[in-house]
């Protein structure tokens, strides 16, 4: 197996830092006063000004924080976004410092258009609230690397509960998160009962959102907009309020159209695109020398997301979340001295399988296949065409 060199590791770390810098510029452009991007900033600022509604917790908190600090809400969103990106990209560079880096495979996996390049290639698909989930897993990965114990179940449950009113769609990624947390901290996978108890508060909250989501009226939208900026909201981009309307209505409303042919198509396409390539990557990287007990929880975590492909059509974003979560976990697992790791066992005799030409070829085929399927089926938010991939 070709060994890692300081040059290849440093180059990959520099690439991550440059990507973070570029994403910071994008985040600033999207948060410019009166012209902030209605998808990647406006969604963060949905609030409870018009009454309790879905995805309103972060906007409620950000607006109050902005008022206390004398800043504009969109500027607060900018700080939150670059903080999340900083944790993910700089955190990944830190994880690489004490890890063997392959000359080809790691570059392809980390800088895939489905992982860490996605927010740069799709400015409207990246920078959404899922970066909170990626930042949280990165923090846990750093803690695990430093020998800390796994978060207690009560803290996992509370974290997921607070994320749900920010973006209820993230609920479907929690089973995968639990599988990866157990993997990172070297503990046995959570049992079905443990997972159920950890996720029960979030599940009840999600059910409550589905049942009691209030009807979206013009008065509600105006109240939400005025909570963001009592005087300046009229100067926003003309599509901003309509984007708020669409965000509040879509998703939950789609549950009632399960028989629609496009909903069925999205379910099948999402299943094939997410499970086939991503589970293959897991088998070739994370699970190849890890006890097989983690293969089933990870697969179940991916299967748990199938309802999301029916409720929302941003399939490319779900692939981005999955691929990034799995990639963070992959790089957080140490490849140095793995023979001493009880969970991993003896791997040096098999390491060549990860970096063989066959592995590289199969990974490239997987990435190209995802891109072609996305292009031919016009899937939203997929890294396929140019730099405007909406």
TrEMBL record:
Residue stretches spanning the membrane: 12-32, 78-98, 104-124, 154-185, 192-212, 262-282, 294-312, 318-335, 355-374
Keywords of the record: Membrane, Transmembrane, Transmembrane helix
Repeat among keywords: no
Protein name in the entry: Uncharacterized protein
Source species: Jezberella montanilacus
């Amino acid at each position: 197996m070709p060994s890692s060199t300081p040059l290849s590791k440093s180059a990959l770390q520099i690439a991550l830092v440059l990507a973070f810098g570029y994403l910071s510029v994008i985040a600033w452009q999207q948060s410019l006063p009166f012209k902030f991007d209605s998808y990647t900033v406006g969604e963060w600022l949905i609030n409870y000004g018009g009454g309790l509604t879905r995805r309103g917790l972060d906007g409620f908190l950000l607006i109050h924080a902005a008022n206390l600090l004398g800043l504009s809400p969109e500027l607060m969103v900018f700080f939150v976004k670059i903080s999340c990106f900083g944790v993910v990209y700089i955190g990944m560079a830190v994880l690489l410092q004490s890890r063997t880096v392959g000359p080809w495979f790691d570059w392809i996996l980390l800088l895939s258009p489905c992982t860490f390049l996605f927010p740069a290639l799709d400015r409207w698909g990246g920078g959404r609230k899922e970066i909170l989930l990626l930042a949280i897993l990165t923090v846990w990965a750093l803690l695990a690397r430093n020998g800390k114990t796994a978060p207690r179940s009560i803290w996992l449950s509370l974290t997921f509960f607070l994320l749900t009113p920010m973006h209820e769609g993230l609920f479907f990624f929690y089973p995968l998160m639990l599988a990866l947390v157990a993997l990172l901290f070297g503990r046995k996978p959570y049992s079905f009962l443990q997972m159920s108890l950890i996720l029960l508060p979030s599940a009840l909250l999600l059910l409550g959102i589905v049942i009691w989501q209030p009807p979206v009226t013009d008065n509600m939208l105006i109240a939400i907009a005025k909570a963001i900026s009592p005087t300046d909201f009229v100067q926003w981009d003309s599509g901003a309020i309509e984007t708020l309307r669409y965000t509040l209505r879509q998703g939950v409303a789609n549950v009632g159209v399960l028989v629609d042919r496009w909903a069925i198509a999205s379910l099948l396409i999402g299943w094939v695109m997410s499970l086939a390539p991503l589970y293959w990557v897991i088998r070739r990287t994370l699970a190849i020398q890890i006890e097989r007990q983690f293969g089933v929880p990870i697969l179940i975590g991916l299967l748990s997301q199938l309802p999301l492909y029916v409720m929302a059509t941003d399939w490319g974003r779900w692939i981005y979340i999955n691929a990034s979560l799995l990639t963070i976990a992959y790089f957080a697992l140490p490849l140095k001295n793995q023979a001493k790791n009880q969970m991993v066992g003896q791997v040096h005799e098999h390491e060549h399988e990860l970096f063989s030409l066959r592995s590289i070829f199969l990974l490239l085929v997987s990435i190209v296949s995802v891109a072609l399927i996305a292009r031919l089926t016009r899937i939203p938010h997929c890294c396929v065409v140019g730099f405007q991939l909406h």
